[in-house]
């Protein structure tokens, strides 16, 4: 019953996917959607093409398992026959066999059968024991699990892509916010310098330098805005949202959250990784295949039954109340394999090698997981340390800039010093943003390496 309801549910999912395929993609709404990163991930699980493809593969496996279940059920078929014999085939017989007065060896033509023949029957076949059917029934759960794990892997891969794309846009927003503060500050400084220039206290060169600085900041602003626009379009694509659909992101970045929870390797279990689970399930499926070839040496037993009726006549009177002759037969069919030209043995050898290869693949995957964890942990720690340094450099550069501005307003500093301090601040901010994005990417890779996505 559980299997039946699961099939019904997945059939409903398939109908939804077909409806989506006909529509190509969700309709674009004029209303702006507001997504947290969790909302984006959940939306992607329902609309991303890779996930839906994996879900269809799971549905196909469910249907295949249902087909396999039918192998153990009775196979019932019906057949009907109508035959008209305008010219009945004749055979020669020795008439002396029927009449002793006829000389022996006297051959006469004799027609066996009548002009019209009709029959109908129902056939029933039931598998009582078949090794291949037995193994197929046993393997259903493993194959279904394999399909479900394929869906889970697709969701994890999509989740990692969505995290990176989402926080890339959020990082761009943070960069724009700080850059807008820089532009506002530079505009204010430029306005003050122009007033001082009108009073003849500074040179025009000082004003021009600030104009160049402002233009560079505005150009950087346009560049980051364009990058944000491209990043937002990539996020929409990653989650299966129409590119033209307005979207607003609600989550923000926290350095503390990015630095938190560096896991000790001793707390990790390989089964946390979906790739490892897939390998284990594939190994079990290969073992069932090996079992199928090994059990092929056993005999198979089927029961069959047949019930029907027939009538023969020289006049077409089948629809009249005439006598039909019924018949019933049943029996058992036993097939015992004796010698297959060593083919079965070779098939067993090949299936065994596939199982051995699965074991090697699992060991290789474990080593890859260990390496992946070491690389991701080291990269994340290095990037966090770099982020802390860049954050400190940005704070120092801001202090230097503010001190330089105070000196400049008091007349003990030059505009060149201001521009130099502001350039250093911009460089420190850019380095900080790059370090921030590197931490985001490396943290997602770290979480994926430990099976925490």
What do you see in this structure?
The structure is a single chain. The chain has helices at residues 2-23, 37-47, 49-69, 131-198, 204-239, 255-259, 274-295, 343-409, 415-449, and strands at 33-35, 75-84, 90-94, 107-111, 116-129, 247-249, 300-313, 325-335. It folds into two domains: 2-73 and 144-298 and 347-449, Outer membrane efflux proteins (OEP) (Up-down Bundle), CATH 1.20.1600.10; 78-129 and 300-336. Helix 2 (37-47) crosses helix 4 and helix 3 packs antiparallel against helix 4 (131-198). By secondary structure, the protein is an alpha+beta fold.
Summarize the structure.
Belongs to the outer membrane factor (OMF) (TC 1.B.17) family. This protein is an alpha+beta fold and 453 residues long.
Domain count: the total is 2
Order of helices and strands: HEHHEEEEHHEHHEEHH
Q: How many alpha or pi helices?
A: 9
Please state how the strands of the largest beta sheet are arranged side by side. 2-5-7-8
Q: Strand portion, in percent?
A: 5-15%
The biggest sheet, with number of strands, parallel, antiparallel or mixed sense and barrel status, is: 4 strands, antiparallel
Number of strands: 8
CATH hierarchy: architecture of the largest domain: Up-down Bundle
Please write the CATH class name of the largest domain. Answer: Mainly Alpha
Task: Determine the N-to-C terminus distance.
Answer: 33 Å
Keywords: Cell outer membrane, Coiled coil, Membrane, Signal, Transmembrane, Transmembrane beta strand, Transport
Subcellular location: Cell outer membrane
Pfam family, one: OEP
Protein name: TolC family protein
């Amino acid at each position: 019953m559980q299997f039946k309801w699961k099939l019904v549910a997945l059939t409903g999912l398939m109908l939804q996917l077909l409806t989506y395929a006909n529509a190509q993609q969700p309709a674009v709404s004029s209303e702006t959607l507001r997504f947290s990163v969790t909302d984006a991930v959940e939306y992607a699980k329902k609309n991303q093409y890779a996930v839906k493809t994996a879900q269809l593969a799971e549905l196909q496996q469910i249907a295949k398992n249902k087909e396999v279940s039918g192998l153990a059920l009775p196979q019932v078929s019906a057949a009907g026959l109508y035959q008209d014999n305008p010219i009945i085939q004749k055979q020669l017989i020795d008439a002396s066999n029927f009449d002793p007065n006829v000389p022996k060896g006297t051959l006469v033509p004799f027609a066996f059968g009548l002009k019209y023949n009709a029959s109908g029957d129902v056939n029933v076949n039931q598998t009582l024991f078949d090794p291949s059917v037995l193994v197929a029934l046993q393997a259903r759960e493993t194959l279904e699990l394999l399909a479900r794990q394929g869906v889970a892997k697709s969701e994890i891969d999509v989740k990692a892509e969505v995290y990176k794309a989402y926080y890339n846009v959020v990082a761009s927003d943070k960069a724009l916010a700080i850059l807008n503060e820089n532009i506002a500050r530079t505009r204010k400084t430029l306005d003050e310098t122009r007033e001082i220039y009108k009073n003849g206290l500074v040179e025009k060169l000082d004003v021009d330098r600030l104009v160049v600085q402002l233009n560079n900041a505005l150009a950087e602003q346009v560049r980051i805005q364009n990058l944000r626009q491209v990043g937002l379009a990539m996020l929409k694509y990653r989650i299966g949202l129409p590119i033209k659909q307005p979207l607003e992101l609600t989550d923000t970045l926290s350095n503390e959250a990015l630095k938190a929870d560096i896991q000790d390797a001793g707390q990790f279990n390989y089964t946390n990784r979906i790739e490892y689970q897939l390998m284990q399930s594939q190994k079990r499926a290969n073992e069932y295949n090996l079992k199928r070839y090994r059990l092929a040496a056993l005999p198979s037993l089927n029961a069959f039954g047949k019930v029907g009726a027939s009538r023969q006549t020289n006049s077409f009177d089948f629809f009249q109340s005439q006598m039909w002759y019924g018949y019933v037969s049943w029996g058992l069919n036993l097939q015992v394999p004796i010698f297959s030209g060593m083919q079965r043995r070779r098939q067993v050898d090949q299936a065994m090698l596939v199982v051995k290869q699965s074991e090697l693949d699992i060991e290789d995957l474990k080593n890859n997981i260990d390496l992946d964890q070491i690389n991701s942990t080291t990269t994340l720690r290095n990037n966090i340390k770099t982020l802390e340094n860049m954050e400190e450099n940005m704070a120092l550069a801001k202090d230097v800039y503010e001190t330089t501005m105070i000196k400049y307003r008091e007349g003990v500093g030059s505009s060149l010093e201001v521009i130099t301090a502001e350039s250093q601040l911009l460089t420190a901010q850019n380095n900080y943003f790059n370090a921030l994005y590197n931490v985001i990417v490396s943290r997602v890779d770290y979480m994926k390496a430990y099976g925490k996505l």
